[in-house]
Fold each of these.
Amino acid sequence: KGTNAVQTSVASSASSVTILAANPARRGASIANTSTAILYLRLNSAGGAATATTAHTVQMASNTYYEVPLGYVGIITGIWASANGQANITEYK
């Protein structure tokens, strides 16, 4: 059973950035988009291609919350439609 919750934040960016690095100890994670711009997230356990507004897993509107699928331990990248605000992340271990 996980007992740790680690909170971080990532500043918004108009180019692809890492939201969460791959972590085999991850039990879950949640991401909140505090930007006024859309955040595009990509879950890509194989690594490789960056997130793009046309290549993403989920599109998050301003002030929305995303629960990472249980058991997903791969990298999560993101890109915003414009750079303002941040993503607040909680990773459960």
Amino acid sequence: MTTPIKRHEALQPLGREHHTGLLFSWKIREGIKRNADLMRMKNYADWFWTSHLQSHFELEEKHVFSILPDDNEKKQQALREHQLIKSLFENNTPSTDSFSILEKQLEQHIRFEERDLFNEIQLAATDEQLQAIAAHHEDVKQDDWADEFWKG
């Protein structure tokens, strides 16, 4: 396992968004454990995708991953995982299994980015590239979903 390096301040807001993604995964896991209504979970997942994750993925793909060459294996892995996660969010037939797969894939992807990919990007990036990331990043949005299905 690669030892994390001190995260450049331009990448720190993305790390805070990753924390929000991990919290999403936890809420879905808790909802599954408590046999929450699948449509309540689907409504939350749809909202989370459009309110948080879609713009996060777009920023990463356009301004963060582009720092690495196209043939970089970790960049390619991250892009594949983004496509998979997007397709899981777009699933219109929610089930316990589909939510379980979604939350696990998202958590694994976030851990990969935080532990591996972002370290490589930070080492390869110029100061100008890091400042461009900071300039394109919006404030981290709060997860203020009112229907707390994960509490049972």
